């Protein structure tokens, strides 16, 4: 019985946000939890940085704060990051044709790593949706590619959540 009440409460909150419309929606505080390997961050530093960057998605109905993985909030986004192996080695080398023959002036390009992210949304303690994304980033707090990746993934998660049809199903009863 308690589970049904929690589901109805979660659906009620979600329905309130959708029914109110974008200009009138209530703001919910969403806790951000991070696991896995976010390049350039210690595990403890990832969630506060993510919450600050997610605010850049300009979603007026969500307010992001760092969460505590030991005590997950009912309204939260759980990020899980994974670095994928770089197939070309640790450093990319580019040899312009004119310089490859004569002088050995090698241009070293900054290392980008392929990263995958899974962002799961929970509202009212109930799982809502998940977004999977992948991109190449350098890592660290000042990496604009990583910032853009987090903002884009946050927007995708929001779009997926709004695409969920929360209206009650109408039952068509055929005459007997």
If you had to describe this structure to a student in words, what would you say it looks like?
- The two termini are 34 Å apart.
- The chain has a domain at 25-87 and 107-163: Double Stranded RNA Binding Domain (2-Layer Sandwich), CATH 3.30.160.
- It is of the alpha/beta class and 176 residues long.
- The longest helix has 20 residues, at 144-163.
- The relative contact order is 0.18.
- It has helices spanning 2-20, 43-54, 97-101, 144-163; strands at 28-36, 62-66, 76-83, 92-94, 107-109, 113-123, 126-137.
- Helix content is 32%, strand content 29%.
- It has four helices and seven strands; from the N terminus they run αβαβββαβββα.
Major sheet, described briefly?
Answer: 5 strands, mixed
Q: Which shape, going by the Cα principal axes?
A: globular
For this structure, the CATH topology of the domain at 25-87 and 107-163 is: Double Stranded RNA Binding Domain
Name given to the CATH architecture of the domain at 25-87 and 107-163: 2-Layer Sandwich
- Note the total helix count: 4
Q: Which value, in Å, is the CA radius of gyration?
A: 22 Å
Terminal CA distance: 34 Å
Strand content: 25-35%
Number of DSSP E strands: 7
Helix content: 25-40%
Given the helix and strand composition, which structural class is it? alpha/beta
Low-confidence stretches: 1-24, 89-109
Q: What key attributes describe this structure?
A:
single chain, 176 residues, alpha/beta, Double Stranded RNA Binding Domain, two-stranded antiparallel sheet, 4 helices, 7 strands
């Amino acid at each position: 019985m308690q589970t049904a009440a929690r589901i109805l409460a979660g659906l009620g909150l979600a329905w309130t946000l959708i029914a109110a419309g974008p200009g009138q929606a209530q703001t919910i505080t969403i806790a951000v939890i991070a696991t896995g390997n976010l390049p350039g961050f210690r595990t403890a530093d990832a969630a506060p940085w993510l919450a600050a960057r997610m605010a850049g998605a300009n979603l007026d109905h969500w307010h992001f704060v760092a969460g505590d993985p030991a005590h997950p909030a009912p309204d939260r986004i759980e990020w899980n990051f994974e670095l994928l192996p770089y197939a070309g080695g640790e450093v990319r080398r580019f040899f312009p044709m004119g310089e490859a023959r004569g002088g050995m002036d090698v241009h070293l390009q900054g290392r980008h790593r392929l990263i995958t992210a899974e962002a799961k949304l929970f509202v009212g303690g109930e799982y809502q949706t998940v977004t999977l994304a992948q991109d190449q980033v350098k890592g660290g707090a000042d990496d604009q590619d990583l910032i853009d990746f987090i903002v884009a993934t946050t927007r995708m998660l929001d779009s997926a959540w709004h695409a969920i049809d929360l209206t009650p199903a109408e039952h068509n009863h055929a005459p007997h």
